[in-house]
Amino acid sequence: MSRILLFVLAAAYVNANISTGFFSYTTSSAIKAVDASSTIKALTPEAPAAVASSTENPYFFLLPTMKAEDSQKQNAKIIFEELHLTLTKAGMASNVNLAKYLIATAYTDVSLVPAEEKFSSEKSAVQKTYFADGFMGRGYVHFTGAFNYQRFSQYIGVDLISDPAQLNQPRIAAKVLVFGAINGKFTGIRIGQFFLQPSAPETLRARTAINGNYRDKDVELTYKSLFGTN
Prior knowledge:
- By secondary structure, the protein is mainly α.
- The protein is built from nine helices and two strands.
- It has helices spanning 11-17, 36-39, 70-89, 96-110, 124-131, 145-156, 170-183, 208-211, 216-226, and strands at residues 115-116, 138-139.
């Protein structure tokens, strides 16, 4: 299980802690869940987007070369779909290196299978704050606390307050991973700056957009090995 991700809002705090990759837990992250309808503006999930065909999605060609199980490849495909949809809506060009890195992130942290954080006696002093309300880490990126669940509900248009376990669904987990990384919602740093084309990807520094420098070298190694990249 990956280390607990705990986020702060102020960019100053983000910058101050970026060398360690561990962000201070704040009381605002432990607010009680309230009626989602009163806190999530216009929370009406859109109809599921049509799945792009292999000729439309610029990342599907990577799937046959991935060194992974079929179930992991299926989850990777969903991440590719969400990335393509997000970049297209934003008018941004496709980015194969970024696609590889997001897969490497999910593979390193949770074996490309959305997972739920487990309670640990070593971390109990921190975990008990949010485990009591059911807002433990879930999905591919383990943010915690009702505050973070609430803001990601707003970001992706899915009610995670009423049903936090939705984060363990591959589609929802992929939406969070892609949106959070591209828009800098995990650490305040947008991941795109590390994958500027035609420059070489900065696969080590890119981790700061997900979880500081925690396991940054592991993700880089996974990036290089998962797709046979030298």
